[in-house]
Amino acid sequence: MIDQGDEAPDFELPDQDGRAVKLADFRGQPVVVYFYPKASTPGCTTQACGVRDHRADYEQAGAVVLGISPDPVAKVKKFHDKEGLNFALLADEDHAVTERYGVWAQKSMYGKTYMGAERTTFIIDSDGKVAEVLRKVKPAEHDALVLAVLEKASPPVA
Known about the structure:
alpha/beta; Glutaredoxin; five-stranded mixed β-sheet; two-stranded antiparallel ribbon; 9 strands
C-alpha cells in the first residue's frame, strides 16, 4: 500500500476514449486519483457524480481528478457518457496499477469471496508525493473529504 509521503508511482492507462493518460503528465499540479470497484454501480455512480458536480471546486484547487477501475475501456466509456462526467476515467483492466497502489484486495459479498478494487483515494501533491490517502471512503462523503485536504494543502487558484 502506498502511504502518505511516498512518491506516487507513475502509471499509464487508457481513458474512456482509449487515449493514454500518464500520471507524470500532471506534475506541477495536485492530482486526485481515486480507485473505484465497478462502473455503473450505485456507490461508484454516487462518487463519480459527486466529482462531476464539484468540478468548480476541484478547478479552484487547481486539481485534476482521475478515476480508476478494473473495467475495460468500453464499460468505462459507457459509464462516463451516461453520467455526463467531466473528468477522466481510466481503465485498469489487468489491475496492475490497482495492485501497485495496494488497493487490489480480497472482498466479500453475499457470502462469496473475490478480488477487487478497494475504494481508496490518493491525493498527490504538485511534486508527485502522496499528500493523503483516504481509505474506504463513503461515496457521498468523498468530495467533502478530498476538497478539505486540497484546501489545506495549497492556497486556492485565483
